[in-house]
């Protein structure tokens, strides 16, 4: 019979250890259901601990139900008036309530009718479902809260990364714009230098022709029309620059360095020698074509027209 009661309790959704203890501590399915209802908010560990303490305090305590043939039909608690069908129920009531005044009673506690038993089962199922629903709802709320925290943290991290990315993009765009402007200025200087050289060759040819024909040579245009090679035309006056950027092609590779415009070419050569170990004897500029040897080393970068930037081959 106990096995059938245990299966019924397990089918109702009760944990097997708690259901086994209920069957062991009571007499029949009705008592087991009442015991489970009374202890639904008490953990299994607390119940077993209370049972162990009870056995240690009173070794002669009997946890089984009343045996057939005993005169007493039930037990009653004189402290609260509650009646119990078995000694086990009375002992558990005493351990939970602290009541100690019990007496035997000849009154027999009538068993539950089928309707009452069914109603009791439904009530237990309802309470069990509500308890599980409360746990599920709390789990859902905790999960939602954790998800909100995770999303907030992810968004803040993404915002920081986006801000850093924008700053890097602005910095890179500014550098590219500056390089583009310097490149345009350098091309303009080269273009004007080529035009000046072309004009110089034309004048030379006309002068030679005039001399052969015995007539006066043509008058050269004013110097202001063609700026000196040593003073490059840039997007702004050379005096506005405080530094120049040199791209130095050495035997070991290309090096880009910035120098104050008043730096002498000798100091540039010394810096290259210190960094690469190459003994510098001259610098060659391709556009416009020009060679700076040791005679030019005493001049500044500004005086040599190497402002705001220039490319030199180290030899």
UniProtKB/TrEMBL annotation:
SUPFAM superfamilies: UBA-like, Ubiquitin-like. Residues 49-72, 92-242 are annotated as: Disordered. The keyword Mitochondrion does not apply. InterPro entries: UBA (IPR015940), UBA-like_sf (IPR009060), Ubiquitin-like_domsf (IPR029071), UBX_dom (IPR001012), Znf-C2H2_OTU1-like_C (IPR057766), Znf_C2H2_type (IPR013087). Residues 221-232 have a biased composition (Low complexity). Its main location: cytoplasm. Residues 237-314 form the UBX domain. It comes from the Eukaryota. Residues 114-215 have a biased composition (Basic and acidic residues). It is found in: Cytoplasm. This is UBA domain-containing protein. It comes from Stereocaulon virgatum.
């Amino acid at each position: 019979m106990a096995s059938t009661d245990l299966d019924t309790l397990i089918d109702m959704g009760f944990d097997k250890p708690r259901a086994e203890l209920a069957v062991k501590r009571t007499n029949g399915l009705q008592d087991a259901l009442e015991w489970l209802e009374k202890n639904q908010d008490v953990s299994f560990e607390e119940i077993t601990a209370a049972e162990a303490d009870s056995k240690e305090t009173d070794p002669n305590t009997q946890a089984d139900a009343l045996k057939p043939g005993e005169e007493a039909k039930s037990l009653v608690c004189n402290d609260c008036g509650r009646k119990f069908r078995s000694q086990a129920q009375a002992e558990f009531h005493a351990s939970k309530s602290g009541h100690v005044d019990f007496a035997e009673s000849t009154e027999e506690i009538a068993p539950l009718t089928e309707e009452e038993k069914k109603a009791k089962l439904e009530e237990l199922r309802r309470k069990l479902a509500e308890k599980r629903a409360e746990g599920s709802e709390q789990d859902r709320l905790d999960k939602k809260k954790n998800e909100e925290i995770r999303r907030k943290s992810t968004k803040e991290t993404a915002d920081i990364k986006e801000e850093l990315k924008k700053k890097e993009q602005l910095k890179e765009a500014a550098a590219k714009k500056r390089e583009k402007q310097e490149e345009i200025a350098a091309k303009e200087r080269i273009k004007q230098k080529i035009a000046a050289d072309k004009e110089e060759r034309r004048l030379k040819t006309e002068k030679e022709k005039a001399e052969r024909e015995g007539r006066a040579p043509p008058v050269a245009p004013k110097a202001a029309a063609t700026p000196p090679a040593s003073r490059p035309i840039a997007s702004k006056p050379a005096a506005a620059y405080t530094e120049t950027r040199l791209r130095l092609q050495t035997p070991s590779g290309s090096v880009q360095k910035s120098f104050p415009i008043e730096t002498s070419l000798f100091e540039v050569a010394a810096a290259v020698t210190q960094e690469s170990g190459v003994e510098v004897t001259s610098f060659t500029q391709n556009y416009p074509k020009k060679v700076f040897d040791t005679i030019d080393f005493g001049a500044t970068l500004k005086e040599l027209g190497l402002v705001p930037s220039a490319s030199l081959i180290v030899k």
